[in-house]
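pinned: reference chain
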Amino acid sequence: MSQPERPSNAEPLHPRPPSPVAPNSKKRSRSDLMLRLGTAAVLVPGVLWLIAAGSGYVLVAVVAIVLLGIREFYHLIEAKGAHPLWSFGLSAGAALPVVAYLGNEYHATILMTAVLLAVMVAQVGKAQITEALASISGTFFGVFYVGWLLTHAVTLRNFQRVVESKWGASAASLFDPNAGAFLLIFTLTAVVLCDAGAYFAGRAWGKRKLAPKISPGKTVEGALGGIATGTLAALLCKGVFDLFWPNLSRGMPWALAAPIGLLLSTAGMVGDLVESLLKRDAAQKDAGTLLPGMGGVLDRIDSALLAIPVMYYLMLATTYLRAGFR
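pinned: its structure tokens
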């Protein structure tokens, strides 16, 4: 996919100060909230259906999201005057979840190494070398940030198979073959409800700024409210699955549900701040405009990009310990 390049002498943009609050900001805020709720009403059932339908459907969805997310990310770094290698980045990003699906995260790691080498070689062959460092770094970071991190959604959905390949049938017996559906829904429930809780808690009680240079609208009170909401939502998710689909959730003991929910909510909030930092540096309000009321794909998956890998490695660690002490 070829993209128009900025002139080589283009000045990189710098963060702009937050805009003053307009007189009709409350009306716009209510309108944005309705758009967000409307978009969520379409997205949430679709995502739940894809996860329940099977790992193949999750793979297709992840590939599509990775392509859209990397595209938005490269537009952000182009706003800074860098020139990412679009074809390498998009191809590698799409290949990562496929490789992880057919193999495992180790094979995806090998691919990541190959991508870095290929990007460096491709940059050597370009006529324009004055921004080689920014081009190589931006291209590879886009693949890592969107492609590699989101690829963990595929391995998490196939978690029972991953455990069996690592530690054998005895460890895998802790989980139902479709336990990955619960683990993925548990993760998304925590981060999505954390985001919603932070929004409403911040509006109701927010006073102290959490990170004013990065995201002036976020408050300490909102963050605490979000983490509490996300943790409670994770516990509720565990309870619903234990009631209706106990085989899927039996691999996560109740003693782990609350601490994992807390860690996922915290990781999701950090992920949101990281994406806000990137947008702030590029002087962009949103990463895109695809989702009404939510901005772009990156604006919607920013929390999940960190939370899903955290969930995957936490479950690997706890499974190893549980299987070892059986």
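why pinned: The chain has twelve helices and two strands. Confidence is low (pLDDT under 50) at residues 1-10, 12-23.
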